[in-house]
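Quick board copy: two proteins, each given as sequence then tokens.
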Amino acid sequence: MEKQTAPPLLPWAKELVALYESGANNQFVLYGNVNDRMLVPAGDQGAIGNLRDYLLKGLLAPFDVVLSYDMGNGIRVEKGGDVFAQWLKLRKTPELPKAPQAAVETLTHYFRYTGNLSRLGEKSPQVACLLPAAELIAPAREMGFSYETNTIVLLMREWANDSLINTHAVATFLLTENLNDLHPLLANNIHAGKIKIPLPDADTIHQSLAFLQPRYTKALEAYSGRLELLSQQLVGAGLSAIEQLVKASQYKREAIQPENLVALKKRLLEQEYGGLIGFIESKRTLDALYGLEMIKATLRQDVALWARNDLKAMPMGYLLCGPVGTGKTFFVECLAGEAGVPVVKLKNFRDKWVGSTEGNLEKIFRLLHALGRCIVFVDEADQALGRRDAASGDSGISGRVYSMIAEEMSNTNNRGKIIWILASSRPDLIEVDLKRPGRVDVKIPLFPTLTRKEGFALIQAIAKRLDLNFSDALFAIIETLIPEMLTPGAAEALCVKVYRVAKTQGLDPPQALQACLQNYQLPVPQDVMDFQIDLAVREATDLAFVPPQLAARIKR
């Protein structure tokens, strides 16, 4: 059993303390992982609580009066009720209001009252005020004319801007999960300190597991004496999800087993991120790809550099382009298996509510930064990544999505940590700036087979997965039936049909293949295939990736 010690201040808390004690800021917008659990400084060993507990029992312990306000509970006195009551006696209406505008006005009056006491040389209390879910009090989506919202926003901004308040010992904390959800006059106020609360790192998870271990010995018995290993494996998950996992395992009298941890973590994260992302698991390597020897050699060089932590030449991102069915998703699985890193697939992060899409992206980015090394896969990138110029009727969402993703993709701090892989059969529809070097450094074209011999070899390779074996001698018999331009997707569908025919009609596999090829028609029209091939050739960063007969089709 590992010894418990009082938790040190988290890095974001140290930053906040420095800004306040230096006098740089007295208002703080805390955003990010604000709804998670955390290890709270309480007593000698700490306790697990929420952000409110962390602030009250840790950072705000020296304050004389601590207030909080949210729309559900109204104004609450968290600490220093006797001191606050002295001011209430001076009011004609000592009852505390619950409605947002009246509550914010009341808080403003109290802050100014304490500031005036200080200016008069009288004893003045040190005051802090928490506003959980601040985006509900001052939402970004109400940027038009609304007397009540505008009044609330201007007063809250004065808490940071008014010298009567900000030169006195008053500290205000606006808590919001996503910065984009908060009214921009508050979110972008230069007089307010913006403090991002990240997902817990391995050290923080380790401290929390050490705190939980004496109470949940059965759940953690498989990691007794090596909680550090479990902590590293759980990076990316919030402490709330980890605590739930430990408690549920303890209740079932089941130990968390190393062999089950990958599946457990995948389930935790997909539940926590509610359909925004998915994880692609892969045990394949680049050996599973048919052909593409030049491309595989290049990628293996990148993987080797990544493994040695030599990041100077590591690409920021890749673009996979080629006709429909050329195996772009399968390609990503093989690369991830070769590199041994998780693949996060962006799913339906767009939302119909104003501001929700941007908030979803903020949440996804927090996860990516917490995971450390990972691959981010964006399928159908021409549709998912937005456009620089917002389309009419989408309230500017497309443009904001484009801007946020473009900024994240070009963040050089992510080099060697996050690799973006975009996939599209229409790369011409992806904004040029998103495909430039520094965001996408390597563009890899994927093509269908170009000869009947290649088509037969592709069928042979995929058929083996279904335990169907076709000898090389079969090619001479069915050569004229094999299509010249066959994609891995089309070949897989063909092999599945061959398997079904062989099993249901009593034919041997070669006979079933011949029967299935008799009236076979490619799933993609030839003109569409040619168009998408030409696009892929033009996008390729290296013509060595392109078969000579295709490179010759494009005039440069």
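And the next:
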Amino acid sequence: MSADTSKKRQGHCARLIPQGYKRAFHVLSRLFLGVSLLCSTLGCDEQLSPPIGERAGDTPKRGGVLRTAFYTGIRTLDPAVGFSTTNAALGSLMFDTLISYDAKGNLVPQLAERYSVSPDGKHYEFQLRRGVLFHDGSELTADDVVRSVRRTLHPDTPSPASFYDHIAGFEQYRKGKSKELGVHAESKYSVSFDLSEPDSTFLHVLALQLVAPVCKSAGAIWSKDFGNAPCGTGPFKLARYEANQYVKFERHEAYWQPGKPYLDGVEWLLNVQSFAQRYKLERGELDYAREFSRADVAKLRGDSRWQPFGEWELPHTVFGAFMNTELPPFDNRHVRRAVAFAINREHIAAIRPGQIVPQYKLVPNVIIPQVPGYPAQRYDYDAALEEMRLAGYAYDPKTGQGGYPHEIDYIALVDSFGQQTAEITQQELARIGIRINLKLVGWPTKQALTGRRKTAAMGTTGWHPDFPEPSNFFDSTLSTDAISEENCQNSAFFSNAELDALMKRARGNPDAAERRRMYRRAESIVTEEAPWVFTHSQRYYEVTQPYVHGYHPHPVLTQYVRWAWIDSSQLTQRVACWLPGKRCGVTALPASFLATPGRGQR
């Protein structure tokens, strides 16, 4: 939306609601707790206040605390079990791994100084950096790496351990039938991994925080307590944690990279509504944010004062709706296919033009481009009706007779874009005789319900890759190995022997072109079987204040703010209002700030 369009909508705001949108107003006012928040959603609020300070200088400076927010909360800070994009961002501050990614997305050594791989691809050896200290002051050794890996893969740890199933002895160790596992301390600073077969993803999975070295306080076996007081080797250590509200990190003064990190700390608010994040950024309560509404993105992009400080993230994530293949009616393949044909992805993308991109397959286009003939789902209303007939639930759109006779609960996150897509899904499935009941829940409840076996028949889902390899989408979300009784990532509880075998062969094949052909066949399977209906990919518009330097969206890692720095000379105005339940305080405010309407008020 252009700046001119915004002004026109401001003029119409007062008469928009009473003339034709009373019902919408009633619903949205309940969701957003007031008319002012509704106006924000419709794009009819006041003009943006200017950014704080100016961008000047390019030499990193030490000092300052970066403040940001998340729409969601977290259940734990333990890297072994905290497996979400929120955990990934928070964990990247506290934990280093043997291998990581540079600014271009290339794999590079991190805690490992160097590594070697045997010619057969089954033996990896890593030489650790010396003098790396944990947050508790102890030195990192090969024994710590071994202990941390064994802890994550222990049968009592509810982690997505299947990433590491090619480590020798994994299956018997994970089942608790053997204590042997192919990870060994060769010397104080040398650790090796033996694989049962070659794995093209192995370096990538070593870059996951799941196996990040943790302090001895984590113990040899997972327990819930460590998730409240985590300890690693990363550039920041935990200073304060209020569950689902607030996390504070402070600099790890003994960090192994001299002069880093630049920031004194990072503070992260949790469970902050997207509409509130823009206001907090604008008022100086946040230094960096990205979870904006469509109207707010349009405003930020259309304002020449804010444009230099915004940047699009690449759309790596796939979103859609899962259908639980173990529960009726989705144990019927034809019903699942009917749903996949019935959803018009363009309707979903139209909600947030620019932010939302229609998605017709599992692997996003930035990883595997969608070319003509590539397997993908499509919108086809007639085909959807035919699949309903084949399923035994024929529906007559003229009379409204027939269809599936029972209402289906659909799990969606309350006050989210997922709720909006769920509402569209509800309308479009009604056109083929499937009635769904929207069950709107909070984040912890959604995770619990959709991850528990034989509990949720349908709901919103999505996947952000842990590493830039297509197998991560299939292995993590649709493989038999990803099925568990609780905390299941395979929310469709989909199992297909051919898909499992394909992914196993792909991981063991060093030929990238051959792996690509296997992924094409894998896409055919999920298109034909439809355990998900793929609907869209989302890209975030990330915005920083001018005084924040050194941050850009990373091609692999989510919200990787660890090397950002703050130019305190430009920190002329800032609102201290980030603690839950605390009153706002303003620091270093010039007269020009006080004269700006709508700023610094609560």
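Board note added afterward: The two ends are 28 Å apart (CA to CA).
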